[in-house]
Amino acid sequence: RDRTNDPRRFHLNKVEANAQYKFKNNYVSTTKYTLYTYLPKGLYEQFRRVANFYFAVVAGLSCTELSPVRPYTTITPLFLVVGISMAKEAYEDYKRYLQDRQVNESEVQCFRNGSFVSTLWKEVRVGEIVKVFRGEYFCSDLLLLKSSNPEGACYVETMNLDGETNLKIKKAVDETHKLDDGDVNAMNGYIECDQPNNSIYTYTGNLAMGAFFASEPSLTRSSTIKLDPKTLIPLNPNQVLLRGASLRNTEHVVGAVIYTGHDTKVMKNATDPPSKRSTIEKGIDTIIFGMFFLLFIMCSTGAICSAVWMVERGDNLWYMAPGDTEFDPSNPAYVALTNVITNFILYGYLIPISLYVSLEMVKVVQVVFINKDRFMYHKHSDTPALARTSNLNEELGIVDTVLSDKTGTLTCNLMEFFKCSIAGTSYGAGVTEVEKAIARKDGRPPPVDPNPGGTGIKGFNFHDDRIAHWRETPTGIQDIHQHFFRLLGICHTVIPEGDGTEQGTDYQAESPDELAFVIAAREFGFFCNRRTATSVFLKEKQADGSVSEHEYEILNVLEFNSTRKRMSVIFRSSNGSITLYCKGADTVIYPRLRASGNSFKEVTAKHMEEYSLTGLRTLCLAATELDPTEYDEWQTKFVAAKTSLVDRAQKLDDVAELIEKDLVLLGSTAIEDKLQAGVPEAIANLAEAGIKLWMLTGDKQETAINIGFACSLLTNAMTQYIVNVDTEEVLKAEASGNKVAAKNLAEQTVMNQMTEALESIRGEASQKNQENALVIDGRALSLALLDNCKSTFLELGTSCKVVICCRVSPLQKAQITELVKLSGRTTIGIGDGANDVGMIQMANIGVGISGQEGMQAVMAADFAIAQFRFLERLLLVHGRWCYKRIGRMVSYFFYKNLMFGLTLFWFNLFCFFSGQPIFNDLYMSGFNVVFCALPIIVVGIVDQDVVPETAAKYPRIYQQGPKNEYFSHTVKGVWMLNGLYQSIVIVGFTLAAYSIRADRSTGEPSELYAAGTTMYTSVVLCVNLNLAMAINYWNALSHLVIWGSILVWFLFLVIYGAFPVAWSLEIYDLFVEVVSTAPSYYLIVIITTATALLPDLSFRVLQRTFYPQDHHILQEVEKMGRKGDPEASSSGPNGAVTNTPVHRAVQESVQLGERESPDVKQVSQQPKIGAQVDTMLPGQPVELRR
Questions:
Q1: Which helix (H) or strand (E) holds 419?
Q2: Is 513 assigned a catalytic role?
Q3: CB–CB of 777/724 below 8 Å?
Q4: DSSP annotation string for 763-774
Q5: Which of 31, 186, 559, 983 is 20 to 30 A from 1078 in CA distance terms?
Q6: In terms of Cα–Cα distance, which of 892, 847, 845 is closest to 362?
Q7: Which residue of the set 141, 194, 400, 405 is catalytic?
């Protein structure tokens, strides 16, 4: 039967007994090739690309007698392109091999024959026990058995796994953390756990030790083992040391090997990231298919015409040897077939073989510019911008929608304890940034902050003298205060480090929220000074000022997750009482409050709403005292769930529900997370650039709205449409207990609200500058994403300039991003935490913020920046430049290849499509790689239409990208028509000139390759000068490559013609003695080139003068700004009146930079704050016991 879902079972410390399971060894290879597979696999990888396969076919056909060119002209470029790519692959694979060898042959202390001996990591097997020292890496997945730390704890750095540099705390189970070497030698245990999987953050297993297994001779896969849960030690991710992590701040650890080699979790995750392709790259595929179709038409046309002409006139064409099979008038079908092959080779230059190599070179340099941009360097964290891929550079210039996380992305994620509500009394007198922004919005002076300088304590910005007198409150209130502060000091997973004094103790916390709570507890007199595997110690300040240490035995920790939205600890005090402390979101705490004894829950709710309105993050604190008998019964269920190998997480959540009930509300906390510097300005500029912004946050609706105003996401001029399900009808339906009816009513309510909003927006469509904002809460969002609602939600969201989604889960972030992306809009997902990874990977472009929540977002992203404000420069400067450069580069490549290929086609039209080339073989080989290669690469790297300061000052110019003004079908069509026109002019003028006269005084007519050299000179000049006309920014490098490429062509003619005749063949001394000595050569080249370039030049002049684009206007602004104030005069430099449309546009261009709010009446739809509630009577006793 299928045993893939069976637990993984193996012996501890008995390698021989585990041999029957045939576990993978610990040798790891991450290379793509081996010595034997490199050549066949490498060639397969290269020729699976359509372009390379096409050129391989052409190269093969060029070796036949039907080829119009010599084989080396097609084989050499193909060999160079494929050879360079394969050499690059080999070099990169060899580096991977060296890294693998370094890891595989590193040494570790392995317990064998009664002692730890030095062993290579690749020789370690499942079930063996190893010792790892400080600074060393774990090269297999280990179960932590003991540590040099007396409590069995150790610190690991997981930077190679998730990019995080902050240390993680791992703890051995109580039963093993005091083992010595003798115990290890006698260890007779057994582990059952998950099968190897790629889930880094989960692990489910059980450990059984000692004589219990003495009667089990073997543990075969077919055996059915009944284990008593009371004898098992449950294992979880806190005991697992993953391959790739390293040991820090701990002398050594001892662990058992549980997964080896390619079974380890990090190797199971070794998959390629989601493949993302830019819009232009997809466009290239379309153009190439179009070129193939054109090639088919040209080959078919030539074959048919050649066959017809050979039948009709073949007998008279004596010089084509009509008796040969290839030109046999009696066999037109064979003539057509051979002509197709000939033309297929000859016209192969339609497909630019150097396009992909040139694009890669340009994109790599563009990435260097992004990485080295000092304006995107964050000095405080020493973090530059980082482009993790070069495939999406140009995609940054066509972004339509930015979907952003809030915490850590728009804010600093440096939490500060700011306010709190205890027993119905609100404490804290500080003023938040959101309060100041609201005052500015309303036209009021900002409220006065009594402590503007703060406390100077990291994580604690609380100021209220009243709280110092909490011990003077009535007994019941005093008890609530004491439990409130004690909960802050106990209900967490923070590890204190240091000498146990307040000044000498640092905290290792996995989240800034928990760190702020523990610091607040310390400042309130409940100092968490140390922690063991089973207890938390608090130094509690007494009323007389003395300090006493109290030990609280931690019995259970019910961990926080995104489903539970709460965390609980169960502890035993020194007096023997058992208490449960719980902290979490109000939406999960309030339903679990007991019916009586919570008389101040309404006023606490009011306080939390007030805190939310000022942009603070709120959390509810509650407690209950447990009956020992009830707890023992629950503990039995908890152990059974904790040792289950099937659905352990769900079972633990279900068991937690049984104990987290009948709670007594203690109060709430309010944490401030300040906005990052420059966020409001960056958002305002992005909005001015026409980019829509969606904020996906876990905050309450009121908090999200006010933060939206604080960061300039929302403005007074916007009409707000708020969608939620908390209507009176829905609440009544939910209260009735009919879940199905309530759900249907809620769904209908959301649909009606969205439909009404859409109709309102459509009705206001005539108001040009009307801006709309949508705010939708979590419950409504879950319904809006249903199949029958999401199309309406998408239409409504995309009709608004701003969308704020509240109470959003990580999965919903990815769903929203996918919905917007599938509508055809280019999206950016930006976030800083692991909960943003789905959104980042789903978006067209993922941007990670290297903030306080580790580096998971950065490692999943395509681009990484340190602060949100850098996104403005990344898009408006680098993105716009990359889009325009790459767009022009691709269009130009196909233009020049089409023009070159058509010159061959038109000439063959005069040769009965016989396949006769007019150019020398080296002319054709050098077209893409020598004479026209460098200019477009340099333009793709350094060309810029306006300077960065202008792009930032006039952000609306960014809309050229989303409107696709540089790579639209029209633009590509114009380039292609230009190539078609120029090819006709070059071939027509050249052949006409050489057909009516001799080009030398001797009267000798011109020969084929003299005409070909003249024609090729015009091609080189046209291609390079056409690019010169398109350049916006001339510099020394631009001049060098443009004029240098033209000069190289003439030097090539002289040098190649001087080679011995055996090498240069028909080109021997052709230019020096024949072509250059004829004055008509220069006249033909000049007239032909001028005629070919005239339409393009005329179009550019007329467009710039009478129909200027945005960048044309801004270029004039820059030019006139360098000479003086552009508004100062309407006269030109010499006093001439410049009253053309472009100069009038310059005078009005300052409007592009103005950011006045549109004069539209505000439609306020914000919900009102709840009604007044009763407060708790002073002195009323509080009873925690159920």
A1: strand 416-422
A2: no
A3: yes
A4: HTTTSTT--EEE
A5: 983
A6: 892
A7: 405
